[in-house]
Amino acid sequence: MSSPALHLAVEIDGDGAHLAAWRRAAHSPDELLTPRRVSRVAAVAENAGFTLITLDDGVLPPGAAPNPVGRIGAVERAAFVAASTSTIGIAPVVPVTYAEPFHVSSQLASLDHISAGRAGWVVTEEERPEAARAWGRPPVDGADARARESRDGVEVARALWDSWEDDAVIRSVATSRYLDRERLHYIDFTGDTYAVKGPAIVPRPPQGQLVVLGRPDQVPAAQLDVALVGGRDLGSVSAAAAAAAAAGTPRVFAEVEVALDTPDATATERVADLERHAPWRDRGRLRHIGSADQLVSLLAELSYHVDGVRLHPLVLDEDLSVLSGLVVPTLSARRLVARPLPGTSLRSTLGLARPANRFTAAAPAATGTATATATAATTQEDVR
Amino acid sequence: MTRTDPLDVPRPHAQLHFGVFFQGVNHWTIWSAPDSGSQIDPASFRRVAQTAERGLFDAFFLGEGLRLREVDGRIHDLDVAGRPDAITQLSALAAVTRRIGLVSTSNSTFNEPADLARRLSGLDLLSEGRAGWNVVTTDNAWTGANFRRGGYLDHADRYRRAEEFLTVARALWDGWEDGAISDSPGAREWSTPGAVRQVRHRGTQFDVALAPTLPRSAQGHPVIFQAGDSGEGRDFAARNADVIFSAHGNDFDDALAFAEDLRTRLRAVGRPDDDLRILPGTEIIIGATEEEAQEKKRWIRLQQVTPATALGIAGLLWGIDLSDRDADGPLPEEDPVVAENDGSFGARRIADPRAVVAEWRAKAEAHGWSLRETVIALGPQRGHVGTRSGLADKFAHFVRHGAIDGFNVTPYLIPDGLDDIVDLLVPELQERGLYRTDYTGTTLRDHLGLREPLTHRSAPDHRQAG
C-alpha cells in the first residue's frame, strides 16, 4: 500500500459485536430502538474522527431471545444520522438477495443526496431460508446463486446511478424544457433472473457512484470500491488484502473485532463476562482483546497491508469510548490516520476519483448494454 | 359565498388541517422562476418541512412514481422530475423536525410487506410516532419493467393485493406487545418471553412467515392515507384508511357530495362516519386584494402552462403529438384519437375526449382564446385564489359544513411556496378559531384527531375522535 495512513470504519449496529453486548450497555434495553440512541452513537463516531460508520441489517431479527430481536432498517437509520452529522461517511448494509435492486438504488442515491456525498453501501447476502419465507420468494439457494443476485443487484444499482447524467436537469426557459432527455438513459439490464428498464427516478448521486463495500468472495472485484477482508491473523489478512488488490479492487479494509481494556475491567474480563451468556461467534476475522496501546500497534502494523480497517467493537458503549478517547487520538498523533474533512465526499476522503458516467463515456457508440459498459466504467475507477 | 351564523352549521367547532405535498413531478411546480429552488437538494425538503412545522401543519407528504414519465415512448421533459426515495428522505427529515407528520407514498404492488412495513415502522420509531403511509397501487407492465416480477398483476387485483398487503403490515405492526422490551438495565431477557409473535400469512397475494423486528410506535401504527378516487378506491379507503387525499376540494358542492359519499361508505362497513379525514389536494394563491390574487394566479398559470406544456396537455387530450404546433394559435382542427392506456403518463385518461374537445372548441371560439389560453382556462383546474380573509371565510364554510377536514397543499414554488400560507393565512384562520395555535399532541395520529389503529379497537367503537 502506498500510504501508511489508515481509514477507520466502525460498525455501530445494536449494542456491539457480541450477541450479549446489550448486557453491558450503558442504557436499558428499551432505549436501543430510539432516535436518541441512533444519533448519539453516530455523533460519538463522528467526533472521534472515524471515516465511516456502517450499519448492519437484514430482513431477519438480529438475534434470538434472550438477546435483542429488534432492529430499525439500516437505510432509515443512515438517513436519520446523515441529517444530524456533517463529516462522517455512512454506509448501510443492504443485501440484494431478495430486495428490489430498483428500490435499493433509489434509496442509496437518496442517501447520498441527503448526506451531500457521504454515502456508501455494504453489500451482504441473506443466507438463511427464513429470509426467503419472510420475503415470500423462492429461496436463493447456495453461494453461487446468492453471488449472482449480489452481482446483478450491484450492477443494476450502479447502472441506474449513471442513468441520469450530472447535467440532465437543464431548466431551459427558451425551450420550455426542465430535462434534457438525451442525458437520461434506459439501462436495459437483463440478468439471469430478472430485467430492469430504467432510467432511475432519482438524479445521479453527488458522488456519481456511491462507495460500494463488500466481501471479495461474494461480490466481483470490479464492482467493489472497498474489499472487506477477513482472516484470523496478520498473515491471512495480508494475503487476502493482496489478493483483493490484485483482483483490481481499489481499496481494501480489514475486518477487526475489538475488545479493549476499560477503566472498570480488562478486555479479557469483559469478554469472559459476556461468554457466560453466549460465545463470541468466530467469523474468521482478526480479533484484538487487550489494551488500547496494543491495538494501536496492531493497526500500525496493518497499515502496511490494508487501506483501512472496519472495527467491530465488543460493546459499543464501552469500546467506542476507549477508541475515541485513546486509540484514535494516539493514531492521529502518530499520523497513522487522517480525519475526514467537513464538506468532503466519502469518495474523496478515500482518495477515490469521482467516476465518469458510463453513458457519457459510451455516448459516441450509442449502443451497448449496461452490462457491457459497466466494465469500462469500473476500469476507469481502478485507474484512480 | 353567503355568511351564516358560525354556530348554525353541522360542525361549528371543526378545525382545518393542513398537509404540504412536496410534489416533485408535473407542471404545477414552477421551475423557471428566479426563486425556483432545487428539487433534490436536502435543503429544499428541510426548508419546506420546517416552514410547514412553523405553520403547525399536520403533515409533510411525499409522492412516488416508480418510472420516469413518458409521452409516446419518450421521457417527458417539460416538468420537474427526479425525486428522492420517500421513506429515506422522510427519515432524514425526522432528525430536523419535531412535531410534523411525515407521510410516504409507497406502492403496494412493487413492494413486499416484510420490507415496506419494516421501513415504515423504522420511520415511525425514528420520528416518535409521526409516520404515515399513502397506499398506492399500480398494475401496469410499463412500471413493472423496473422490477423483478415485471407487470404481473391484473388490474382487477390491485386493490385485493393492497388490502392483503395492509393486513400483513398490520399484523407485523401488532406483532410486539406494548412494553415488550425490558426497561431494566439488569434484565435477564432483552424482551419479555412470548411478547413477540411470529406472523404467518397465507392468502391469494402473499405466502409469508416472519418475525416482526420492531415494536409499535407512540401512535400504534403509521397513519394510513389513500388517494384513489374510483368506487373501488373509495371502498378501500372506507375499510382501511385514516385519511383520504382526495381530488374534491375546489367546488363546495362537489366536496360535500364526496364527503357524504364517504360517510355512507364508512357506515356501511361499520365505522363511525367521522373516522376518516378528508384532505383534498389543492393550491392556494393569496393576494392583498382580490385583483392582486387574480393577477398572481395569471402569472403563476403562465409559468406553469408554458407553450410547450400547453401543447403537451392538449396532445394528451387529442391523443396526437402536437408539439410542432403554435400554442398561441388556434385549437387543432383534427378530431381526437382514442388510444390505449398503458400506464405511462402519456396514455389517455380522459373518458370522452371528443366531448371535451367539442366543449373546448365552443368556448375558445366564444372568447377568442388561443390554444394556450384555452388550456389555462379549461385544462386541469384546482386551487383557491383570494385574499387571506376571503379564503379563511371560504375554508370555514367548507370545513364547518363537513365538506372537507383540510387540505394537502401543493406549493407552486419550492422551497418558499408555503411562506404566504404560513405567514398570512394561518393567523387569519387562527383568529377565526379555525386552526390550532399550538400542537397539542406529539404524533401524526394526535394531530389529525384520529382514533386508535383499526386493529386495536373493541368493536363496535362509538368513542368520539379526540
TrEMBL record, chain A:
Region of interest (Disordered), residue spans: 363-384
Gene3D superfamilies assigned to the protein according to its UniProt record, in alphabetical order: Luciferase-like domain (3.20.20.30)
InterPro entries: Diverse_substr_monoxygenases, Luciferase-like_dom, Luciferase-like_sf
Domain annotation Luciferase-like: ranges: 21-281
Keyword Isomerase: no
Pfam families (alphabetical): Bac_luciferase
Protein name: Nitrilotriacetate monooxygenase
Species assigned in the record: Streptomyces griseorubiginosus
UniProtKB/TrEMBL annotation, chain B:
SUPFAM superfamilies in the cross-refs: Bacterial luciferase-like (SSF51679)
Positions with a binding annotation for FMN: 105, 155, 159, 230
Domain Luciferase-like intervals: 34-334
Keywords: Flavoprotein, FMN, Monooxygenase, Oxidoreductase
GO molecular function list: monooxygenase activity; oxidoreductase activity, acting on paired donors, with incorporation or reduction of molecular oxygen
Similarity section: Belongs to the NtaA/SnaA/DszA monooxygenase family.
Name of the featured protein: F420-dependent methylene-tetrahydromethanopterin reductase
Lineage start: Bacteria, Bacillati, Actinomycetota, Actinomycetes, Kitasatosporales
